[in-house]
Structure formats: structure tokens, C-alpha cells
Design brief:
It is a single chain. 37% of the residues lie in helices and 2% in strands. It has 24 helices and 4 strands. The mean pLDDT is 90. The chain has 5 domains: 121 residues, no CATH class; 102 residues, Cytochrome Bc1 Complex, Chain D, domain 2; 90 residues, Cytochrome Bc1 Complex, Chain D, domain 2 (Orthogonal Bundle); 89 residues, Orthogonal Bundle (Cytochrome Bc1 Complex, Chain D, domain 2), CATH 1.10.760; 91 residues, Cytochrome Bc1 Complex, Chain D, domain 2 (Orthogonal Bundle), CATH 1.10.760. Helix 8 packs across helix 9, helix 12 packs across helix 14 and helix 17 crosses helix 18. The strands form 2 sheets. The protein has a two-stranded antiparallel sheet. A two-stranded antiparallel ribbon has the order 3-4. By secondary structure, it is mainly alpha-helical. The chain binds heme C (HEC) (7 copies). One heme C binds next to helix 11 and helix 12.
Length: 586
């Protein structure tokens, strides 16, 4: 309880001083200054300050919009030459006699976002840190037309940037990885149905230009057109328009707008031309452009000209390497063959569309002349993945998982003589390493092997020898169990194997054995193997003996370490566990 009334008096006086200051400041508020300037520019008497407010009813709330307290001349054609913020609004609908939108009814924030109640410019423009709806200035505001107009298809004058973005989303193959409800269904990447509700325009723009800005290991590809501002701007405008809680709903659309039917013309008869169009991502005879392989894949014309993107492998030899059925399967579901593939899934392709693509890919006939030398063979067929320095870091390698083999590590090149050749002939299942036996002759493959060895090995390195061990048979003595001498090896036990795996292997291979352990991305090339990769684990040559050797001795020339502290029984148990994972799911 305050007894000394002088203190109370003092506090009261102080309060009145502040109130006085606040009122004085009120007279000088920016919007009032602008309003005075406006009437001065018009040559009229200042009628006194008003907070110009429009209440816009939306299905979810009431938008209180006071922007025109400062932007006072927006609807006045006579204010064209006035300074900001007093000036006339620029035309929204190009060529229209009069803008169809009445700012006195819909305000400004419905198109431009911002914080519409605020009368301080910075706050109103949504510059407060973390404000979810920063100002959309200029043509960015086209992302808001969809709040009232139906824009799934068709053309709305003044929304050209948004519409370009809508087309690019299909042409650039974004739809193959990202779901936008009603447009695409794919589970490769985060859904973007509410991208505009969740993210600012700048974030969306940045995510396209620098996919690794937030996450260094992001599997969002960096396309080679991202330096083109107009393309990225249009895509970001379209994505900003994707908001779940947008104003428009079938019965509350402010204009009796009839939702145009998204009439989807599909390719119904296979042809090379249709395939070419899908590959390029352009419409074909009225069909929409759902393709865009060329954003990621290059190919060679008959005279050897290379064109296309560098995110996936060159497809010049795809049909010859893999066969038609495999390729069709891969287009629809790449992860069936390569579980960690980032390739978009073009799930909704019909047979005619798949056939068209295969027909188009089959037109690639490029082949090197028969007497080409090692370097030429390597540069044509191998360099894009295995790299100029043979270190497995060719231009398309970043988006592949597993990475291409690093031949600069001579241990690998020397340790696996038979496998080396066999893998070139038949490919490595479950990875991007294709089979070359239908493209290259045996002689060419020999030339290539010699060339790789020549580049990576000197006399001394050639002498590297990997230890030889063989898989113990059931009933053999456990040669590696030092504690229990004389113990015999029994059939592998899945549960014991899992326990041992969890102890010794998860830091790299992950708890699930999918190769994504906490250390996975700290390792040097290559990544830990995804041991759930069925095609890889069940291919010919992937014997228990190989697994035993790889676990005990490590994989030569890779970060897979040796585990010579494990007993034979433990390794056999682990193999049973690993096998169980890929058999179960068969
Ligand atoms: C306090 C006065 C004030 C209020 C309130 C205000 N603005 Fe502004 N606005 C300005 C001024 C001044 C400028 C020009 C200064 C500048 O370019 O930064 C401007 C510029 C703009 C621009 C152009 C921006 C650019 O970078 O080209 C847009 C768009 C805009 N305002 C929209 C709005 C919207 C929408 C609202 C309501 C949510 C609003 N303003 C509220 C004063 C205001
Ligand atoms: C129907 C949607 C819509 C409404 C409502 C709207 N604008 Fe705009 N505004 C646009 C579009 C679209 C442009 C870009 C025009 C162009 O350059 O093609 C634009 C441009 C502008 C610009 C100049 C370009 C820049 O630098 O950003 C200002 C300033 C602006 N608007 C302020 C306002 C203010 C203030 C209001 C409210 C009185 C308002 N707008 C209401 C859509 C709208
Ligand atoms: C707040 C809802 C709202 C927003 C947001 C909005 N519009 Fe409109 N639009 C209307 C209304 C209402 C009309 C008037 C319809 C009438 O006169 O019957 C209209 C009419 C039009 C027309 C003329 C009629 C037509 O359908 O061709 C065009 C063009 C147009 N708007 C373009 C745009 C563009 C471009 C944007 C985004 C920059 C936009 N609108 C944003 C409500 C909106
Ligand atoms: C190969 C599949 C793939 C394709 C094609 C693709 N993206 Fe992505 N995108 C991703 C993945 C994966 C992420 C998640 C980022 C990460 O790895 O953290 C992502 C993230 C994003 C994000 C950020 C979303 C968020 O939640 O942070 C945006 C925006 C985006 N992509 C836009 C696009 C656009 C636009 C295109 C077409 C030009 C496109 N993407 C094509 C895979 C893809
Ligand atoms: C966003 C980039 C991207 C797009 C778009 C894309 N792919 Fe791929 N594609 C890849 C990547 C990365 C790989 C390697 C991983 C794998 O095998 O899936 C790949 C692999 C392939 C392969 C296997 C090549 C081989 O021999 O192993 C084929 C065939 C293929 N893509 C065809 C297509 C076709 C046809 C389209 C268009 C309908 C397409 N891709 C669109 C990125 C893409
Ligand atoms: C599309 C990319 C790509 C191209 C083109 C490619 N490779 Fe590979 N290659 C890979 C990948 C990925 C691996 C890793 C496979 C794995 O994880 O076991 C690999 C592995 C290998 C291996 C090791 C196989 C093994 O059993 O471990 C050899 C040898 C090889 N490649 C040789 C070649 C030669 C020679 C060429 C050219 C004729 C070539 N590669 C072209 C992607 C490619
Ligand atoms: C330091 C990280 C690391 C640890 C720990 C590790 N691995 Fe690996 N592992 C790798 C890498 C990297 C590869 C890929 C080698 C390659 O590309 O051929 C691999 C490959 C493998 C392979 C495939 C071998 C082949 O012949 O292709 C198996 C099986 C395997 N690891 C099992 C295990 C088991 C079981 C353990 C625990 C006892 C384990 N790994 C511990 C990193 C590790």
C-alpha cells in the first residue's frame, strides 16, 4: 500500500505527459501526413484525417483492410502522377477500359497480403519479423487471383505470370515429385498443396534456386535453368497461390464464376512424336504437358550432339542397356529398381504414353566407331557418372544413390577382378550402373578395363592383394571365436544377427539397415549400402560368401571397414538378418 501520495501524484502526472505525447504523435501519424499531401496535390482543402477501412468478408474470417489510409489515391485515375503511396493503382487487367475490381469493396491485402490492420508502413507491409504474409508486390500479386477466380485451367487476363507458372510446374517435371491436390500425386517429395499457406514467396523462390539452402543433403534437384529469373518467378508465383484456406469456395466465390472443367486430353495413340513431346514436356495435339524428362536427362543425336539436363543419366543407350519393359517400369516407379532413386514417378501414364516414350527413346542410335580408343570410349559411355578423374564424381553423380564407383581408389580396381568385368557386362542391379553388353563389344569392354587400370594403377599399386577367406560351412570350427575355442558354426540366427547388427553397423547403415545411419553423409564416397535394396541383394553374384568377405574384410577402396573382431557365428547371424530383410518383402 503506497502511503506517500506525492508518489501517486507524480505517477499520474507522468501518465498525462505520455498521453499528451501520444496524442501529438497521433496528429503526425504517417497516414495523416500522406492524406494531407494527397489533398494538397489535388489542390483541395484537407477534410480531416480518416482511417480508411474496408471490411472484406471471407469464408473463414473478416479481413480488416486499412491500406488505403495511406494509399489514398489508388482508385482515383486523376492521381496517376502523384508520388507513392498516393498514386493511382497500375492496371491489373491489361487493356481493360476500367479495372473490374473495386478497391472500396475488396481492399488491397486480398491481393497483396501484408498486415492489413496496421497503420505503420513497415508493419502494414508485413515486414515484422516472422510475419507469415509479407507484402506481395508487383506481379507477385498474381498469386492471389486464385483466391476469387477459378484458375485450374483456362485463361484469366492479368494472370499471365501465374498461368506460366502453372504450365512450368508440368513442363519442368515438378509434378512428378510433388503433389498438388488435383494436379499431381507423388510421394517423392513434400506436398505443395498448401505451399503458399506455409511459405513466403521468397522462401519458395529460394527453394527452387538453391535447393540445398536449408538442407545440404537435399534431394531436390538443382535444375540448369534456375538462373532464369522469369521462370523461377513464375513458378514461385504459382506455388504462392497454392493455399488451402483460400477465399474461393464453390458457393462463396465473389463472382458467379463457373469453375471451368479441367478437361484433360491424354495421348491415346502411341507415336514417336507424342514421345518426343512428353520427353520435352510440351503439349501434344491438345494434351497437357506432363513429362519433361529433358530437364534431367540428356541424349545424343545421331551425329553425337549432346543435349539435355544433368540430373539423371544420359538416356542414349537406355533401351539398349535395359530393354523396353524395364524402362517402362522405371518411368512409372523408379524406386522399384533403385530404392533411393530421386527420379520422379510418372505413375499416371497410360500405355500409349509409355509406348510413345519408349518409341522415342528407341530412335537414339548413336554408336562410336569400332576402333575407338579407351579415352574416347570412357568419355562417351562412362565419364558422366564416373567422372573425369575416375573418382565417381561425374556431372550426374550427385543425384545418384548409390554413387558411381570411385576408381581412383586402386584397392577396389585391383581387388575385384572378375566382378569388375562382369559388372560392366551385366550392370549392377538396384543401382544406376547399367548393363553394357548390348552396346559394347567384349573387345571394347577389355579396352575400357585396361584404360581404367592404366589411369589408376602403377606397378606398385597393381600388387595390392586382398586377403582370401572362404565362408565357413555349418559344422566347421568357428575360426574366429577366440573365447570359446572349438565351438562349431551353426545356421544363422536372425534375432542374434539383428542384435549384433544394431551394435556394430547402425552408425553407417542405420537402424533399419537402409544405409541412412547418422554417419552416412559424413563418409567419403561411396555411401553406406542400402541393405534393403532387393534388386541389389538378390542379384547373381551376391552370394553369402561375398557378404561374409565384405563384412569380415570390408570392401576394398571404400569406407566399409573390416570387422575382424566378430566371430564367424556372429557374421553368419548378421547375414541371416540381412537376408531376412530382403526376402520377407519379396
Ligand atoms: C503508413 C502508410 C502505409 C500503409 C498503411 C500502407 N502502405 Fe504501402 N506503401 C507506403 C509507402 C510510403 C510506399 C512507398 C515506399 C516504398 O516504396 O517503400 C508503399 C509502397 C507499397 C507497395 C509497393 C512496394 C514496392 O516495393 O514496390 C505496395 C504493393 C503497397 N505499398 C501495398 C500496401 C498494402 C497491401 C497495404 C496494406 C496491407 C499497405 N501498402 C499499407 C505506405 C503505406
Ligand atoms: C485484384 C488484385 C489486386 C488488388 C485488390 C490490389 N492490387 Fe495492387 N497490384 C496488383 C497487381 C497484379 C499488380 C501488378 C501490376 C503489374 O505491374 O502488372 C499490382 C501493383 C501494385 C503496385 C505497384 C507495383 C509495385 O511496386 O508493387 C502498388 C503500389 C499496389 N499494387 C498497391 C495496391 C494497393 C495500395 C491496393 C489497394 C488499394 C492494391 N494494390 C490492390 C493486384 C492487386
Ligand atoms: C477478392 C476477389 C478477387 C480477387 C482476389 C481477384 N478478382 Fe478479378 N474479379 C473479381 C470480381 C468481383 C470481378 C468482377 C466480376 C463482375 O464484374 O461480374 C472480377 C473480374 C475480373 C476480370 C474481368 C472478368 C473476367 O472474368 O474476365 C478479370 C480479367 C479479373 N478479375 C482478373 C483478376 C486478376 C488478374 C486477379 C489477380 C491479380 C484478380 N482478378 C483477383 C474478384 C476478384
Ligand atoms: C526429383 C524430385 C523433385 C523434383 C523433380 C522437384 N522437386 Fe522440389 N523438392 C524435392 C525434395 C526431395 C524436396 C525436399 C527438400 C529436402 O530434401 O529437404 C523438395 C523441396 C521443394 C520445395 C521446398 C518445400 C519445403 O517443404 O521446404 C519447393 C518449393 C520445391 N521443392 C519446388 C519444386 C519445383 C518448383 C519443382 C519443379 C521445377 C520441383 N520442386 C521439382 C524433390 C523434387
Ligand atoms: C528430376 C529429374 C528427372 C526427371 C524429370 C526424369 N528422370 Fe529419369 N532418372 C533420374 C535420375 C536421377 C535417375 C537415376 C536413378 C534411377 O535409376 O532412377 C533416372 C533414371 C532413369 C532411367 C534409368 C536409366 C538407367 O539405365 O538406369 C530411365 C530409363 C529414365 N530415368 C527415364 C526417364 C523418363 C522417360 C523421364 C520422363 C518421363 C524421366 N526419366 C524423367 C532423374 C529424372
Ligand atoms: C548412369 C551412371 C553410370 C554410367 C554411365 C556408368 N556407370 Fe559404372 N557405376 C555406376 C554406379 C552407380 C556404380 C555403383 C554400383 C554399386 O553401388 O555397386 C557403378 C559401378 C561400376 C563398377 C563397379 C561394379 C561393382 O561390381 O562394384 C564398374 C567396374 C563400372 N561401374 C564401370 C563402368 C564403365 C566401364 C562404364 C562405361 C562403359 C560405366 N561404369 C558407366 C554408374 C554408372
Ligand atoms: C564406417 C561405416 C560403415 C560401417 C560401420 C559398416 N559399414 Fe557396411 N558399408 C559401408 C559402405 C560405405 C558400404 C558400401 C561399399 C560399396 O560401395 O561397395 C558398405 C557396404 C556393405 C555391404 C555390401 C557389401 C558388398 O559386397 O557389396 C554389406 C553387406 C555391409 N556393408 C554390411 C555391414 C555390416 C554387417 C556392418 C556391421 C558389422 C557394416 N556393414 C558396418 C559402410 C559401413
Amino acid at each position: 500500500m503506497i502511503k506517500d501520495y506525492r508518489i501517486l501524484l507524480f505517477i499520474g502526472l507522468l501518465g498525462m505527459v505520455f498521453l499528451g505525447l501520444a496524442i501529438r504523435k497521433g496528429f503526425d501519424e504517417d497516414y495523416i501526413r500522406y492524406q494531407k499531401a494527397y489533398y494538397e496535390a489535388l489542390g483541395e482543402d484537407f477534410p480531416g484525417p480518416v482511417v480508411k477501412q474496408v471490411n472484406v468478408k471471407t469464408p473463414s474470417s473478416m479481413l480488416v483492410d486499412r491500406c488505403q489510409s495511406c494509399h489514398i489515391g489508388a482508385s482515383n485515375p486523376g492521381a496517376k502522377d502523384f508520388d507513392m503511396p498516393l498514386t493511382t493503382h497500375p492496371p491489373i487487367v491489361p487493356g481493360a477500359q476500367e479495372d473490374p475490381h473495386d478497391f472500396n469493396k475488396i481492399g488491397c491485402a486480398i491481393c497483396h497480403d501484408g498486415s492489413s490492420r496496421d497503420l505503420d508502413m513497415h508493419l502494414a507491409h508485413g515486414e515484422a519479423h516472422g510475419w507469415i504474409a509479407p507484402l506481395l508486390n508487383g506481379k507477385m500479386a498474381q498469386s492471389s487471383c486464385v483466391r476469387c477466380h477459378a484458375m485450374e485451367s483456362g485463361h484469366l487476363a492479368g494472370a499471365e505470370v501465374y498461368e506460366l507458372g502453372r504450365e512450368l510446374f508440368l513442363e519442368k517435371a515438378c509434378w512428378g515429385c510433388h503433389t498438388i491436390a488435383g494436379v499431381s500425386t507423388s510421394s517423392q517429395a513434400p506436398e505443395l498443396t498448401d505451399a503458399g499457406g506455409k511459405f513466403s514467396f521468397d522462401y519458395l523462390y529460394e527453394s527452387i534456386v538453391h535447393p540445398k539452402a536449408n538442407d545440404e543433403n537435399s534431394k531436390m534437384p538443382k535444375f540448369d535453368w534456375v538462373h532464369d529469373h522469369d521462370t523461377v518467378f513464375a513458378l514461385a508465383t504459382y506455388l504462392k497461390g497454392q493455399q488451402k484456406s483460400k477465399l474461393r469456395s464453390d458457393d462463396t466465390a465473389p463472382i458467379g464464376y463457373i469453375k471451368p472443367k479441367a478437361d484433360e486430353v491424354r495421348i491415346s495413340e502411341a507415336s514417336v512424336d507424342a514421345g518426343r513431346a512428353l520427353f520435352a514436356g510440351v503439349p501434344f495435339e491438345g494434351s497437357i504437358n506432363r513429362g519433361g524428362c529433358v530437364n534431367c536427362h540428356a541424349f545424343r543425336s545421331d551425329d553425337g550432339q549432346l543435349a539435355g539436363g544433368n540430373i539423371g543419366p544420359e538416356l542414349t543407350w537406355a533401351i539398349r542397356n535395359r530393354g523396353e519393359d524395364w524402362v517402362k517400369d522405371h518411368i512409372v516407379n523408379s524406386r522399384k529398381h533403385a530404392p533411393d532413386s530421386i527420379m520422379p514417378t510418372f505413375k499416371d501414364y497410360n500405355d500409349a504414353e509409355l509406348d510413345s516414350l519408349v518409341m522415342f527413346l528407341s530412335t537414339f542410335g548413336y554408336k562410336l566407331s569400332a576402333d575407338s580408343e579407351g579415352q574416347k570410349l570412357y568419355d562417351t559411355y562412362c565419364v558422366s557418372c564416373h567422372g573425369e578423374d575416375m573418382n565417381g564424381q561425374g556431372i550426374v553423380s550427385a543425384m545418384l544413390d548409390p554413387y558411381p564407383r570411385d576408381f581412383s581408389r586402386h584397392q577396389f580396381v585391383v581387388a575385384y577382378e572378375d566382378r569388375f568385368k562382369n559388372s560392366i557386362l551385366n550392370g549392377v542391379s538396384g543401382t544406376a550402373m547399367p548393363a553394357w553388353k548390348n552396346v559394347l563389344t567384349e573387345g571394347e569392354i577389355e579396352t575400357l578395363i585396361e584404360f581404367i587400370k592404366d589411369k589408376t594403377l602403377d606397378e606398385q599399386k597393381k600388387n595390392f592383394k586382398r586377403m582370401e577367406v572362404s565362408l565357413p560351412k555349418i559344422g566347421d570350427d568357428d575360426r574366429r571365436d577366440w573365447k570359446n575355442k572349438g565351438k562349431v558354426v551353426e545356421a544363422g540366427d536372425v534375432e542374434r544377427g539383428e542384435a549384433a547388427f544394431q551394435q556394430a553397423c547402425t552408425s553407417c547403415h542405420g537402424k533399419l539397415a537402409n544405409g541412412k545411419g547418422p554417419n552416412a553423409y559424413n563418409l567419403q564416397h561411396p555411401l553406406p549400402r542400402n541393405l534393403l535394396n532387393k534388386e541389389f541383394m538378390n542379384q547373381e553374384g551376391m552370394t553369402d560368401e561375398r557378404l561374409y568377405q565384405s563384412i569380415l574384410l570390408g570392401v576394398a577402396g571404400t569406407p566399409m571397414p573390416s570387422h575382424d573382431h566378430l566371430s564367424d557365428q556372429t557374421i553368419i547371424d548378421i547375414i541371416a538378418f540381412i537376408r531376412g530383410n530382403t526376402e520377407e518383402a519379396k
